[in-house]
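Q: Joint fold for the lines below.
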Amino acid sequence: MAELSFKLETSINHSAARAGIITTDHGVIQTPIFMPVGTVGSVKAVTQQQLKIDVQAQIMLGNTYHLNLRPGIEVLEAAGGLHQFIGWDRSILTDSGGYQVFSLAANRKIKEEGVVFQSHIDGSKHLFSPETVMDIQRSIGADIIMAFDECTPYPSEYSYAKKSMELTHRWLDRCFNRLAETPDKYGYTQNLFPIVQGSTYKDLRKASCEFIASKNAVGNAIGGLSVGEPEEMMYEYTALCAMHLPQLKPRYLMGVGTPWNLLECIDLGIDMFDCVMPTRNGRNGMLFTTQGVINIRNKKWAKDFSSIDPGLPAEHSQYYSKAYMRHLFVAGEILGLQLASIHNLSFYLWLVKEARNNIIAGNFVSWKKETLEIIKRRL
RNA sequence: GAGGGCGUAGCUCAGUUGGUUAGAGCGUCAGUUUGUGGCACUGAAGGCCGGGGGUUCGAGACCCCUCGCUCUCC
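A: Joint structure:
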């Protein structure tokens, strides 16, 4: 089986946007791409069939920290890996738990060796080091696995950001070493993506990009953004990192973002995105549509029998009405969470596909401008 | 017709022996959510306490009248 490959189909002037094709042992991923988040091996409220057929997801995410706690590597190995366990034959990417160093900051201690987490489930203590995280990801068996890093909070002091970045770099070497020492478990190749850190300091970001680029990985990720900094700052640092990461390798901006974040960052040369927003915000009644943003709980939708999103070529979004969706949310019905999640993910996947088509057609910049005005509106 | 019960936010109701700017749940409205511990969280609007009169320093509460709803009996 083969290492991940990335073929750049085209690039255009006046924008760093590009369209590409990533190939893993589980298939082809057309970029730019959005990857639904399925932390514990489940994209909340959405079945794998719905992800494939309705959402048209090409790759999904899992999380090393969460999957290690439940169901644990014994079950995953007995199942033959996460793909087999959850019934997903397309690509999978697992995050390393580096984000949990940030999001579960109250429950962990960082050391040179690694991070000791106290489980949010039962309080038990677990050491996550570059080595254990690589081992767990071997057992999970994702096609793309992430280096163990520290996602620094915003704002961070320069001295802390520098120290943390250097630790992340040392951990990266240990990740590569461990991976080289251990065989894959299920007969297909696992590809390690390093992660750029450096907080909101240009010299650190540049140094981190150069360090990461020197590893010559098959793809590279930008971490530590969209953690509370102003939107403009996020774009500024995304642009800086994209510029300093290899042209011919996929660039993955971790944890981003809103639909408009995606378009702006595609413009800056980003190829891969993941975010909980379409699912989490969907479950809270926020719908992203081709017309703009809807709070489906608002009374004004009570008698609006038009479809959820007439402009989106997705079956559920055409079939069910806004009024019915509102009713489901007001009534607290589970179906509302499902439909909102499927709709939002369908919209995200549609959006990146449209972006791709317009990059290839050479229209991306003008298409982006028109589209942003519409999809950012609050309806 | 007689007797009893009840009228407080849009709805359902809580308001101690009379004591500061009358509360809750739901609903309404708005906001937050970015490598998912938390189908979550935050906030706002909304009241001549059915009406009138009286007692009192002070009434949603006590007294009288009145209107409306409701139950039981005839």
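Q: Anything notable?
A: The mean pLDDT of chain A is 94. The first strand of chain A starts at residue 5 and ends at 11.
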